[in-house]
Design goal:
mainly alpha
């Protein structure tokens, strides 16, 4: 694997981690009534989505099977970005 691929994979992984951390913060903020935590979580989720999109380089042509798996995994972990991108790949 080339160093460009490694960088892309690391960014994709980091993007997913940022999204998951943001979702957790947002949930804690909602449950505790803390607007700063909720807002911070939403911002972290969006940053994760943006990073995943940048890491992908706009490549959405991965085929319907990969898209279906990505969408199902996204639903399972609560990652809206994975659900959205997986749905696009199925079209």
């Amino acid at each position: 694997m080339s160093s460009a691929d490694e960088t892309s994979n690391a960014s994709m992984l980091h993007g997913h981690a940022s999204y998951a951390a943001g979702a957790a913060k947002e949930t804690i903020g909602s449950l505790s009534g803390s607007e700063p935590w909720t807002t911070s979580g939403q911002q972290d989720k969006q940053a994760g989505i943006d990073e995943m999109r940048a890491a992908k380089g706009g490549d959405t042509d991965r085929g319907p099977t990969v898209g279906k798996v990505e969408a199902m995994a996204g639903k399972a972990v609560g990652c809206e970005g994975m659900v959205e991108e997986g749905g696009k790949s199925q079209e």
